[in-house]
Amino acid sequence: MKIGQLLKESKRSISFEFFPPKTPEGEESLFKTIKELEYIKPTFVSVTYGAGGSTRERTIRIVKKIHTQTSLTVMAHQTCIGHTRKEIVDILSEYKSTGVQNILALRGDIPQGQEESFVFPKDGCRYASELVELIIENFGDWFSIGVASYPEGHPESPDLDTDIFYFKKKVEAGAEFSITQMFFDNRYFYSFIEKVHKAGIDIPIIPGIMPVTNFKQIKKFADMCGATIPPELIKKIQPVADRPEEVEKIGIEYAVQQCEDLLKNGVKGLHFYTLNKSKATIKIYEAVKHLI
Ligand code: FAD
Known about the structure:
Elements: H1 3-9, E1 13-18, H2 24-37, E2 44-47, H3 56-69, E3 74-79, H4 85-98, E4 102-106, H5 128-139, E5 144-149, H6 160-173, E6 177-182, H7 186-198, E7 205-209, H8 215-225, H9 231-237, H10 244-264, E8 269-273, H11 279-288
Parallel strand pairs: 1-2, 1-8, 2-3, 3-4, 4-5, 5-6, 6-7, 7-8
The protein binds flavin-adenine dinucleotide.
The site of flavin-adenine dinucleotide (FAD) has 25 residues, from strand 3, strand 4, helix 5, helix 6 and strand 6.
């Protein structure tokens, strides 16, 4: 099923993001997580891709396995900075031959420390908008294409308006929906949506939700992607930072409040960054399902 169409048909979507595990044990545990989450009947699930192509085989295998062995609609993340155009077309051809119809088209993060010196592959795509164009040139409307967006602006962007200008290029190239970077303060999301609408972008934008279950890890992610962690959340978590169960409890309570507020304000869906675990996502879903 194509996600663009599913979003048109559904009032709200629920989706889960996974990463491709490195070991057979990790893979077994991921499929256990998927089984535990399946009862929620998510609109779709997605599988991440290493920016430089490091997870190529693993991402393809997991996407195909979800597509062929579960009832779920799956979306493959595809980054472009580590590949030539031919390599990307080869990967996407493999998805097409299996029947996978959804791609999240991404540039990928430039490796840390190489911001100035990074050499983009010759005959590659420099930006996600070029990747969207490449997909449509080669596969027509076989794939429903999603793209990333950034309520607090992309870290390389000089300001939010410039970032929205380039977000629009991805939509004009053919992206049908977008999933946002994680954020912890809904005010960034609401003001982003207002600006995006003013800029004439009208595709569904699904907020990305990252429940805080490990403060150190989330802080690292948030620093990397430029997401602000609200001082009130830090204040609650810091005193218990070395007590994982308490951190998780506070993180889940916070995410429940965040999701309740988003749902009451009419968001099109919720996309959970699961980190391949089901517990936090299930708790949040159960607490807010009456609003979905
Ligand atoms: P782009 O849309 O190309 O934007 C990158 C930067 O360039 C932005 O600052 C933008 O404003 C600017 N820009 C865009 N076009 C132009 C132009 N023509 N001229 C000048 N500037 C321009 N990373 C992974 O490696 N693997 C994943 O699986 C993955 N999944 C993700 C899922 C979601 C929901 C999100 C939000 C992000 C994900 N990322 C993933 C991270 C993403 O790859 C990085 O944020 C990356 O730095 C930017 O990717 P993009 O597709 O947004 O790039």
